[in-house]
Amino acid sequence: MYRPSALLLYSLVSTAIFNCIYAEEVKIEVLYKPENCPVKSKRGDALNAHYDGYLAKDGSKVYCSRTDNEGHPKWFILGVGQVIKGLDIGMTGMCEGEKRKLMIPPSLGYGVIGKENIPPNSTLIFEIELYGVRRGPRSVESFKLIDLDGDSKLSRDELKIYLQEEFKKDTRKQDPSYKDRVLADILRKNDHDGDGYISTREYNVFQHDEL
Ligand SMILES: *[C@@H]1O[C@H](CO)[C@@H](O)[C@H](O)[C@H]1NC(C)=O
Predict the structure, then answer these.
(1) 87, 141, 147, 183: which one has the fewest Cβ atoms less than 10 Å from its Cβ?
(2) Is-above-0.70 flag for pTM?
C-alpha cells in the first residue's frame, strides 16, 4: 500500500518543482460569463474593455482604465503586443460581457525592470470587463467581404469597389484623386510580390486564421 501514495507524493513534488521553475503562465479566473456568446476574442481582434491593475503583493492599484481617458473603455488590438503579454494571453477566448481576474507573472508583465509605479519583479492582478469584440481590420471576414469573386486574392477592381463603399460612409468632402492615391498606396504596401493582387498571405498580417 505504500507504493501508490509514494508515487502520488512524488508526482505532487515534481509538479511543485515544475511550477516553481516554470510558473510563467497567466492564471485566469472567470468571474462572469454571459450565456449568450456569439463571438470569442482572438488574435487580431479589436477589443473594448475596462481593466484595473493591482500589485499582487499588497493589492495597491497601479492602473485603472476607468479614470483614464474620461472613463471610456479602451480599444486595442489583441495579440500584437499593444498591451503586456499577460493581457494578450489572458484576454483571449473571452465573450462580450465576460469578466475575468488574471494573475500575471512578472515575465509576462513588466519583468525584472518594472515601470513607473510598478516595481521590478511584480506579479500583477488584473480585473477585466470586456465590452466589445470586433473582428480586426485584417480578419478573414473582412477579406471575404472584399474578395467578391471568391478567388482568394484581392484585385485592383475589388479593392476599388470596396473603397468606394468605405468612402461613401465618410461624409467629408474628398479630393477626387484621393481614392486613387489610397488604392495605389494599399497595393504598394501590401502587394509584396508585385503580381497586382493582394493574396491571403499578404493581407492577413496577423495570420490568426486559415482562409
Ligand atoms: C528580479 O528577479 C531577478 C531574477 O529572478 C533577480 O535577479 C533580481 O535581483 C530581481 N530584482 C529585484 C529588484 O528584486
Answers:
(1) 141
(2) no
